[in-house]
From TrEMBL:
The protein's name: Phosphate ABC transporter ATP-binding protein
Gene name of the record: pstB
NCBIfam families assigned: 3a0107s01c2, PRK14258.1
Sorted UniProt keywords: ATP-binding, Cell inner membrane, Cell membrane, Membrane, Nucleotide-binding, Phosphate transport, Translocase, Transport
Lineage, top ranks: Bacteria, Bacillati, Cyanobacteriota, Cyanophyceae, Nostocales
Molecular functions per Gene Ontology: ATP binding
Length: 259
């Protein structure tokens, strides 16, 4: 096995909304071209932690952090960090499709246009490439100028992934990407995630333990303590977390949901 490279390194990281501590003392490595799953009970801070990896939380409230989150060695919480560039490099897909009320084409092109002007032929190629990468081209090549809101739920979610891919991210954060989708659409998303693993580093939050075992290389188990502060209890290869966890809380959580 080739040596693992850390795309994101989290060091003793704590996160506050206003003065309320949400996440405490997390340290972990998110490895390049690997899929890392974050699991834990509902409301335990998994999504908050995920959004802290590209500072998306700062769009919601005043935040304070302690410790470091390093993206290829650079602390993303330094003042001089360009947030627009950071969020292009570490892109995010949310639990429910959040498409704009515009065409399929314009949704995918949206982030690319924010970066700068491109000749139409070049923009066409970027849009087509992203839709193909999201395995949607055959379904949508004749619907590029129709409203994206007319698509099925599964197609909309894959189009959100295409939009994220269009800006050429290095890391893709996925928060419950199959939430509310039917089994066929969920499997299409899973197949898409598998196809992207050689090109991207992927972090996925999910409650579906079977999905975790099918997709992920590494797993982090998060748990809220008695003060409702999120801590990472255990991190390791997915095989180890699911077959030989070190902490009884990890074992209880995983075994109750996998059996």
């Amino acid at each position: 096995m080739s040596k693992l490279i850390s795309a994101i390194r989290v060091k003793n990281f704590s996160f506050y909304y206003e003065t309320q501590k949400i996440v405490e003392g997390v340290s972990m490595d998110i490895y390049q071209n690997q899929i890392t799953a974050i699991i834990g009970s509902s409301g335990c801070g998994k999504s908050t932690f995920l959004k802290s990896l590209n500072r998306m939380n700062e769009l919601e409230a005043e935040v304070t952090v302690e410790g470091r989150v390093e993206f290829y060695g650079q602390n993303i919480y330094e003042r001089r960090v360009n947030l627009s560039r950071l969020r292009r490099q570490i892109s995010m897909v949310f639990p429910k499709p959040n498409l704009f009320p515009m065409s399929v084409y314009d949704n995918v092109a949206y982030g690319v246009k924010l970066v700068g002007w491109h000749p139409k032929v070049e923009l066409d190629a970027i849009v087509e490439s992203a839709i193909k990468a999201a395995e949607l081209w055959d379904e949508l090549k004749n619907k590029l100028h129709k409203s994206a809101l007319e698509l099925s739920g599964g197609q909309q979610q894959r189009l959100c992934i295409a939009r994220a891919l269009a800006v050429k991210p290095k890391v893709l954060l996925m928060d419950e990407p199959c939430s509310g989708l039917d089994p066929i659409s969920s499997m299409q998303i899973e197949n898409l995630i598998q196809s992207l693993r050689s090109e991207l580093t992927i972090v996925i939050v999910t409650h579906n333990m079977q999905q975790v075992t099918r997709l992920s290389d590494f797993t982090a188990f998060f748990h809220s303590n008695e003060n409702r502060i999120t801590q990472m209890i255990e991190f390791g290869t997915t095989n180890k977390i699911f077959t030989n966890p070190l902490d009884s809380r990890t074992r209880d959580y995983v075994f109750a949901r996998i059996n």
